[in-house]
Amino acid sequence: MPSVQSKVTIAVDALGGDFAPKNVLDGVALALLHDVALRVALCGPADVVEPFAASKAAAGRVEAVATTEEIFMDEHDPARAVRNKKDASIVVAARLVKEGRAQGFISAGSTAACLAAGTLIVGRIRGIQRPALAVVLPGKRPVVMCDNGANADCKPELLVQFAEMGRAYAQAALGVENPTIALLNIGSEEGKGSELAKEAQILMKEQTRNFVGNVEGRDILEGKADVIVTDGFTGNVVLKTLEGSMFYLLGKLRAIFTATIAAKLAGLALKGSFGELKQELNPDQYGAAPLLGVKGLCLVAHGSSSPEAIANGILVGAQSVRGELTEKITAAVQK
């Protein structure tokens, strides 16, 4: 079994995201500082990746992989772009994983292109019907939610596979030895919800270890289960609703505590507590969502990712490799 300090290579798309390449390069530098056994294969234009690889920040641990094409955020058909643009940075990063030169890749570029590259180039694990996106949600304790947008329409048996993949991610990335699994529903009682939810609950009760039943949306941040399973449409709506709510509430608090001199003084007194709250709700803690069910690690970061988010995505990716995420999912499917 790999040690915590075993070397891991993550391929990074230098052109991914709204603030690329600067935020990507800054994120890579941060990740290298925090993980001495990390190696990076940096994919992008030669005039971007080669100077960085030769810089002090890279410390001889970055391989420059020059590319000549780019897949843009507004591509009309991202899957076709992945097929046709063989030398695009996302495509090359995924190919490095397929060839075994990297154990995973990360991009803050087009989500659809990342999903296509993960599925078409890296390839599905045998037995996986559809790969799924997982995110770690903040709250009283970290919670893995799966799926979050890769599969808008699902059959009940897919949710059973999502549960097993989410379990493997909670073990590999979060260190939870025996994760509890729940189904997202409109009520906690049995027999609640849509036909999909009712049928999925029956299957999960029969087939899923540590299944604790239904949880509602209000239970997510309470950490009532380690892994929460849902279809990709619902998961994506939940994720974006939580993100919007957090940003709104933090913005309102900031406005309240800067409105008057008295409020500013109260804000200074509570600064430490608000800092703790902000960090607890910070979506950048884990930085990227893995596409579970492919033969190597495929990490999809938010287009507006900060350097911290990019760094954390890379670090969680390296941790997942060392935690044998792909091997755990493969073993679960074989069982």
Features:
335 residues, alpha/beta, Isopropylmalate Dehydrogenase, 2 domains, 11-stranded mixed sheet, 12 helices, 11 strands, globular
Number of folding domains? 2
Mean pLDDT over the residues: 89
Any idea of the CATH class of the largest domain? Answer: Alpha Beta
Indicate the CATH architecture of the largest domain: 3-Layer(aba) Sandwich
Share of β-strand residues:
15-25%
Q: Quick one: how many beta strands? A: 11
Which strand order do you get reading across the main beta sheet? 3-2-1-4-11-10-5-6-9-7-8
Instruction: Note the total helix count.
Output: 12
CATH topology of the largest domain: Isopropylmalate Dehydrogenase
Instruction: Note the overall shape.
Output: globular
Order of helical and strand elements: EHEHEHHEHEEHEHEEHHHEEHH
Which homologous superfamily in CATH is the superfamily of the largest domain? Answer: Isopropylmalate Dehydrogenase
C-alpha Rg, in Å?
20 Å
Helix % is 40-55%
Low-confidence stretches: none
Structural class: alpha/beta
Give the biggest sheet: 11 strands, mixed
Distance between the termini: 20 Å
Written account of the structure:
The protein is α/β, with parallel strands linked by helices. The protein has twelve helices and eleven strands. The protein has an eleven-stranded mixed β-sheet with strand order 3-2-1-4-11-10-5-6-9-7-8, with helices on both faces. Strand 1 (8-13), helix 1 and strand 2 form a beta-alpha-beta unit. Helix 1 crosses helix 11. It starts with 7 loop residues before the first strand and ends with a helix.
